[in-house]
Specification:
Blueprint: H1 2-28, E1 40-45, E2 54-56, E3 59-61, H2 63-75, E4 78-83, H3 89-94, E5 100-101, H4 109-112, E6 116-117, E7 122-131, H5 135-138, E8 152-156, H6 160-168, E9 173-177, H7 180-188, E10 194-198, H8 199-208, E11 213-225, E12 228-229, H9 234-249, H10 252-260
Parallel strand pairs: 1-4, 1-5, 8-9, 8-10
Antiparallel strand pairs: 2-3, 6-12, 7-10, 7-11
């Protein structure tokens, strides 16, 4: 009887330990049995979109980069960042070159046909940036007023700003650029009158070069950023949304937000 009693208590103790271990695992993650956690989380991004994703001194920085670093730790995976042009980033994802896209990508109905988006992690606006001494542009108070043959407008290829200009500024002369650096330089040297960009990037440029640039934003041009994966990767996106919710509630989101914005 004594041996049986000891054996029973050992079995009981074992199950208690098993329960505690399981609770610790599943309380910190939301991983389902169907989620295949990658040993290395591969993330496609389009560098140069300050302050979301950019390279400085050979290293990746930015809000999106730090968010992906936190998510990879959540998964207990290594992280690999892959740089693509914005117009080639969705094809790269669907060709399985990476697991996720995180690059300040705007959630649109058209993109939803090709990728699965996360819950939004950032709200922005479409704005126009111009040289401070350009009085002809400064007197304008609305993006639609730029829809005129007299104006030269710059956009980055493949962005929602590019799509916006094609739809709403088709009377203006549109100049398209592959890189943000070339886009910004085009307005700095006067090749274009204004560029259409994200409000966060516009604020960054205005603060860094207060004597050169100025930007204006108008109502009704809100944009929402999301992380994207393939349409079939529902479990991975479910896990990211769980992580994002926790990241916001534990104060880490706010910490990174203050750091970059």
């Amino acid at each position: 009887m004594k041996i049986s009693f000891i054996f029973f208590n050992l079995i009981k103790f074992f199950y208690i330990l098993l329960f505690i271990s399981s609770y610790q695992i599943f309380s910190s993650t939301n991983k389902s049995n169907n989620l295949k956690i990658p040993e290395t989380l591969k993330v496609c991004t389009a560098g140069g979109f300050i302050p979301f994703t950019y390279i400085s001194n050979g290293n990746w920085y930015g809000f999106d980069i730090h968010m992906m670093e936190a998510f990879s730790k959540h998964l207990n995976s290594k992280l690999e960042i892959l740089n693509y042009s914005i117009d080639g980033i969705i094809p790269a994802l669907n060709a399985k070159k990476c697991d996720l896209i995180s690059t300040g990508m705007v959630i649109t109905e058209e993109r939803k046909k090709s990728v699965l988006f996360s819950n939004s992690y950032f709200k922005s606006k479409i704005i126009y940036l111009f040289k401070k001494n350009n009085l002809n542009i400064d007197k304008i108070s609305n993006l639609h007023d730029l829809n005129n043959l007299n104006y030269k407008i710059g956009v980055k290829i493949g962005t929602t700003n590019d799509f916006y200009a094609a739809k709403n500024l088709n009377k203006a002369n549109i100049f398209k650029y592959n890189e943000y650096g070339d886009l910004v330089n085009s307005v700095r040297i006067g090749k274009v009158d204004a560029i259409i960009i994200d409000s966060t990037y516009g604020l960054y440029l205005e603060k860094k070069f207060p004597n050169i640039f100025k930007f204006k934003e108008t109502e009704g041009n809100d944009q929402y950023f999301g992380v994207a994966t393939r349409l079939t990767e529902k479990e991975l996106m479910k896990e990211f949304n769980y992580f994002l919710s926790k990241w916001k509630s534990n104060g880490e989101y706010e910490k990174e937000y203050k750091k970059f914005f």
